[in-house]
UniProtKB/TrEMBL annotation:
<feature type="domain" description="Transposase IS116/IS110/IS902 C-terminal">
    <location>
        <begin position="296"/>
        <end position="361"/>
    </location>
</feature>
<dbReference type="InterPro" id="IPR047650">
    <property type="entry name" value="Transpos_IS110"/>
</dbReference>
<feature type="domain" description="Transposase IS110-like N-terminal">
    <location>
        <begin position="30"/>
        <end position="189"/>
    </location>
</feature>
<protein>
    <submittedName>
        <fullName>IS110 family transposase</fullName>
    </submittedName>
</protein>
<dbReference type="Pfam" id="PF01548">
    <property type="entry name" value="DEDD_Tnp_IS110"/>
</dbReference>
<dbReference type="Pfam" id="PF02371">
    <property type="entry name" value="Transposase_20"/>
</dbReference>
<dbReference type="GO" id="GO:0004803">
    <property type="term" value="F:transposase activity"/>
</dbReference>
<dbReference type="InterPro" id="IPR003346">
    <property type="entry name" value="Transposase_20"/>
</dbReference>
<dbReference type="InterPro" id="IPR002525">
    <property type="entry name" value="Transp_IS110-like_N"/>
</dbReference>
<dbReference type="GO" id="GO:0006313">
    <property type="term" value="P:DNA transposition"/>
</dbReference>
<dbReference type="GO" id="GO:0003677">
    <property type="term" value="F:DNA binding"/>
</dbReference>
Amino acid sequence: MQEKERRSAKQALQDLKMEIRSSQDTLIIAVDIGKIRNCACFMSSSGKVLRRRFFFTNTIDGFNQLMRQTKFYQRREKLPHTLFGMEPSGYYWIHLYEHLTRCGKRAITVSPLAVNRNRETINVSRDKSDPKDAYNIADLMRQGKFYLPIYRDKEIRELKRFTKIYYRLVAQRSSLRCRLRGIVGYIFPELEHYFTDILAKSMMIILENCPFPSEIRKMGRSRFVFLLAKENPRFSRKRAEEIYELACSSVGITGEEKSALFEIKFLLKELEDLKSNMDKVNAEVQNIVSGRDDYSLLISIPGVGPVTASSIIAEIGDITNFSSGKQLIKLAGLDLYGSESGISIHSLRHITKRGRRTLRT
């Protein structure tokens, strides 16, 4: 059934392209999307420009203005069919796209790369403006150079947003780790070099109880060794004594203990909160993907864990939308390209990187 639906969608796209290229009775409405204001260009499928610029806001009033203008040109030019097109810029285009689909209008998208390349064929200058981009999109639509957007269902959209939140939290954690390593290296450089992982359990015990070399010396060898043994029994006595010796001969900066302690406590609290939030996000992700057949298949692959599997599903959605592995490779931007010109052939090929970055990482 899914295969039949996929083929019918592909055939529908081909029929739509053929209709636009051959018919004379379709009104093309190309929209250059902006965050606050959009610009529309009205053109007939025969190539007649009806209006180069029509500005409307990204609100329901602006959308209604667009619909009224569309009906006006349909009546005036006797064009029974309409086709709306836009470049998928950020998240702004989704508002208009959803409104058009709710109104039962046909809506398509054009590739940002195609828009950039086609701009040079229309105008040799490097000038760029909203009206020119709207006309550029209309020209691509008239040539049939467009595609139907894959607008995923609610569940996949939720999953994608959760995975984005997760990766942002990972980036914040990396930043906090670097800041913590920096302050430790400032007050106790020997300790920073001793632990490869700045968030190691024994490191956390030291930072929470006695982060400065002077505090470790004041505690004395036996109390310091006992503290580490009590809080982390797996940490050897020999290593604890080595850290004590490092504290006794440390060249760390002194005189800024109050501010350094404040920053350490702040960073440790931030890292703790981040971990809690990451666990919550992971729980939400698991609620979405658990029970999915594609998730079970992905995590069965060696080296693919829950986070990676969830990210892949969030990016590609329903895998039956793709007819071959080559399409997935292209979506990820992992397809290869070479360079040939006359008798000059460069044998070394590179990946295009024109695709979803998350799928490549």
